[in-house]
Amino acid sequence: MTTMNCDEFVRLVTAYLDEDLEAGTERRFTGHIAECGGCDVYLRQIRVTVAELGHLPAHGLTDQARETLLNAFRDWSAR
Amino acid sequence: MRDMPEADLQSPGPALPADDVVVEALRCGDEDMFAALLTAWSPGMLQVARAYVADEHTAEDVVQDAWVGVLRGIDKFEARSALRTWVYRIVINRAKTRGVNDARTVPMTSLTTAKEDFDPAVDPGGPRGGSRGADDPLAPPRTPVAWPSPEGEILALEVHQHIERALGSLPARQRVVITLRDMQGYSSDEVCALLEITAANQRVLLHRARASLRGTLDRYLTAQSGKEPTR
């Protein structure tokens, strides 16, 4: 089993998180985590980043835009 | 993860009746159903539109315009895709057009495919092996320092502000992918179908976007913890 360097690890992070690595590559990937503290931290930080993105507040339409669209719907359905 | 054999957008967001029920209700002029759709889908549509246009106001214009387009087209909707997929395609097309027309705010190059979308995606701010990167001025060797956990309301708010600012600096292609994947929870298959891009391209765009946002958080949180950010 060839070892994985940090560049290769970083390049494969997204595929790993999508569970899309071949079995052998995934073993090398997880093997690298075990022996490289920096890449272990990096992977955790990517996970935190993804989680924080999922927690961003989402905003709806303004009341005015919503009212305009409901009026447009009334006009459209009375066509 | 969600079981999603078809590349249709169904799961995220509040529950609505089945597509055929929704479509029939709209065609019959059921205003409550239209109002429910506006509530359920507009927040996601605003985020997607925002990937292509310069500000929230323009994004709202685009989404309003898209909903009018939905009404004009609903009689001809043939259920070849999920209703939500069809609606998202409408908003993406309009947002792209608006982004191109507004070229003074969003450079056109950020809307079209770029060479780097296909380049091997190493993160210049990421970890480096001892022997690699030392002679590369863009990527000094560094070891990531663990972040303090972003707990506490003020810190969480600031983290969100930093993320939103960083989203604003991403090319549209990256921003729309990370919006759909990480903010809205769609699968890579769904995103590829919606944006008509290959799986490899989708992954590179997501990878670059995540690496970029991680870098932003790293500079902020490492400074927060009282340690000097490396770069």
Task: Give a written overview of the molecule.
Chain B: Belongs to the sigma-70 factor family. ECF subfamily. Chain B: This is RNA polymerase sigma24 factor. Chain B: Keywords: Sigma factor, Transcription, Transcription regulation. Chain B: GO terms for molecular function: DNA binding; sigma factor activity. Chain B: One of its GO terms (biological process) is DNA-templated transcription initiation. The complex is a heterodimer of chains A (79) and B (231). By secondary structure, chain A is mainly alpha-helical. Chain A has one domain. In chain A, 73% of the residues lie in helices and 0% in strands. In chain A, α2 crosses α3. The longest helix of chain A is centred in the middle third of the chain and has 18 residues. Chain A is elongated. The mean pLDDT of chain A is 94. Chain B is an all-alpha fold. Chain B folds into two domains: 83 residues, Orthogonal Bundle (Rna Polymerase Sigma Factor, Chain: A), CATH 1.10.1740.10; 109 residues, Winged helix-like DNA-binding domain superfamily/Winged helix DNA-binding domain (Arc Repressor Mutant, subunit A). In chain B, α2 crosses α6 and α3 crosses α4. The longest helix of chain B is centred in the last third of the chain and has 26 residues. The radius of gyration of chain B is 20 Å and the shape is elongated. Classes of the chains: A mainly alpha (79), B mainly alpha (231).
Which descriptors apply to this entry?
heterodimer, A: 79 residues, mainly alpha, 4 helices, 73% helix, 0% strand, elongated, B: 231 residues, Rna Polymerase Sigma Factor, Chain: A, Arc Repressor Mutant, subunit A, disordered C terminus
Give a nutshell description of this structure.
The complex is a heterodimer of chains A (79) and B (231). Chain A is mainly α and 79 residues long.
